[in-house]
Amino acid sequence: MPAFALPDSEGRWTSLDDLLAEGTLVLSVQRGGWCPYCRAEMAAWRTAAPLLGALGARLAVVTPETGGRAAALAE
Q1: In this structure, what are the phi and psi dihedrals at residue 30, rounded to the nearest 5 degrees?
Q2: Which residues, other chains included, contact 10 with Cβ-Cβ below 8 Å and sequence gap of 6+?
Q3: pLDDT at residue 63, rounded to an integer
Q4: For residues 41 and 30, is the Cβ–Cβ distance under 8 A?
Q5: Contacts of 39 (CB under 8 A, 6+ apart)
Q6: Are 14 and 5 in contact (CB under 8 A)?
Q7: SS (H, E, C) 29-72
Q8: What is the pLDDT along the chain (75 residues), one digit of tens a residue?
Q9: Beta strand pairing status for 57-62 and 24-29?
Q10: Any bridge partners for residue 28, and if so which?
Q11: Strand partners, 62
């Protein structure tokens, strides 16, 4: 995957290298909270979060959502 740096839901810039430095990473690309498929996938990741944590992995979501919509998706 090519290197990238993107703002998080709070506007702080995060790079792929920063995310990978923290350990195993699962990267999900989402269209947004308005997308029914994306909402279903996020619900599945919410259920799988304890397992991801137990395996030492983190979930990072890339979305074009901005402002409050990005924060809502992060929740």
Answers
A1: -115, 145
A2: 71
A3: 85
A4: yes
A5: 33
A6: yes
A7: ECCCCCCHHHHHHHHHHHHHHHHHHHCCEEEEEECCCCHHHHHH
A8: 899 999 887 888 999 999 999 999 999 998 888 899 998 999 999 999 999 999 999 999 888 887 676 666 666
A9: parallel
A10: 61
A11: 29
In terms of phi and psi (left: phi > 0; alpha: psi -120 to 50; beta: otherwise), the region of 11 is left
User: pTM above 0.90?
Assistant: no
Query: Hey, what are 68's tokens?
Result: 């409050």
> In this structure, which amino acid lies at residue 11?
G
32/69 Cα distance (integer angstroms): 8
Amino acid identity for residue 31 in this structure:
R
Answer for the pair 5, 13: CB distance below 8 angstroms, yes or no.
yes
Q: Which residue has the tokens 């909402």?
A: 39
